[in-house]
Amino acid sequence: MKTFLRGLAALCLSVGVTSQARAQEYTFTTIEPFGSNGSTASGITDDGQIVGNYGDGNGIHGFLLSGGTYSTLDGPGIRYTIAWGINLSGEIVGWYNDSSFRLHGFLLSDGDYTTLDAPDSTYTLPSGINAGGQIVGTYNNHGFLLSEGSYTTLDVPGSNSTYAYGINDVGEIVGGYDGHGFLLSQDGYATIDVPDSTGTAARGINNVGQIVGEYYAAGKWHGFVWSAGGLTTLDVPGSISTTAFGINGRGEIVGQYRDASNNAHGFLATPMK
Fold first, then answer.
1. CA 224, CA 79: separation in Å to the nearest integer?
2. Dihedral sign (CA 201, 252, 260, 19)
3. Each residue of 216-247: pLDDT tens digit?
4. d(Cα 165, Cα 163) in Å, to the nearest integer?
5. Which of 18, 71, 113, 219 has the most CB atoms in a 10 Å sphere around its CB?
6. Which residues on neighbouring strands pair with residue 227, listed in sequence order?
7. pLDDT tens across 43-55, in order?
């Protein structure tokens, strides 16, 4: 376990989010497996493998997009599997429901599913995994870190609820609490709030510290990329809402947008040179 986690409540800071003088521009590609009736792209590796989920007439399924080919990921659940995070080794985390419709986490490694249940949890939702196999997620309105078989609860000091969404290879964790985003690093917890927004969540972080997420302003949800103190808003053209869930070391971003008919689609945003 990373040593900075010994003092989780030691420090709360505020991350200064400012606008960039020249925002990065992106090209957008829709991620839509098998003609689905709704999709989300949520995790991406440095070599471009993407995981997410999609819906069809038979339920909700996870997917892996690798080398231009989609593969369906159906865990041991009943008509419901969500794949959310992936590392460079191809290990995938997410969650599924059982016959009683309880949500359990899973780790998919070398083709085998392992169920993940945080102690005393009523639901467990793993959402991020790094190269060292550390997993973050949420249970019972608390964040968690699973490292070397041991669960550590993550609660932003003074918060009513904490959700851990992403982790990079140095152990920095991002998430949300009570309408704010956060970054947990060796300096402790730092709050992330986009100016003039009424809600912010940090969803993913890469190994150079770029953070993606969502914020609410002007009557809609917008994606964002925060890098070196600068903010770039990420709106898929023609969308009524955009959320960014994951970012890799090349700055490629995955997420979900809703079109004018409120249909959900996954997307890949590729930085323009």
1. 32
2. positive
3. 999 999 999 998 868 999 999 999 999 999 99
4. 6
5. 113
6. 230
7. 999 999 999 999 9
How is residue 175 written in tokens? 């998430």
At 34 the three-state DSSP class reads helix
Report in angstroms the alpha-carbon separations of 149 from 19, 85, 103, 233, 261: 40, 18, 20, 37, 44
How far apart CA 135 and CA 116 sit, in angstroms, is: 10
0.85 exceeded by the pTM?
Answer: yes
Q: Which of 134, 71, 137 lies closest to 103, judged by CA?
A: 137
Residue ranges of domains in the chain: 3-271
Question: Into which CATH architecture does domain 3-271 fall?
Answer: 6 Propeller (2.120)
Nearest to 40 by CA among 48, 49, 51: 51
CB 222 within 8 A of CB 19: no
- The CA angle 193-197-202, to the nearest 5 degrees, is 40
